[in-house]
Fold:
Amino acid sequence: MTAPTAAGGPPGLPSDVTAALDVLLGTEDAIHRALRLQVPYLRTAGRCSCGCGTTHFDLDTEKVAAAPLPVGTVVAAEVQLYDTVEDCIGEVLAFTRNGFLSWLEVCSWSDEPVTLTDALRMLRP
Ligand SMILES: [Zn+2]
Structure:
């Protein structure tokens, strides 16, 4: 998957966020293709204060087309996280609102927050 922004990623998005979105949206699914076109326009609006990798986005919806998704908040992509003994320990979800990328959520089934850097080592698309 070569995006025009592959060198360094979109300005304003940390590389761990870009890398996670690459995996989550890296399918041939028409919805994922449409959402990938929004990634260069995303800005980080805030990251979760608990230390996990959950990240909220700002997106100028005048500049991009909405993906063909239902109105409201939808999980548009998800991947599970597996540890070294192949136990599923959580998942990463991409939420959209009205067809636009809205936030990335890192869920852990334990009390330990999982950062995106941790998650990237454990993602199984
Ligand atoms: Zn958190």
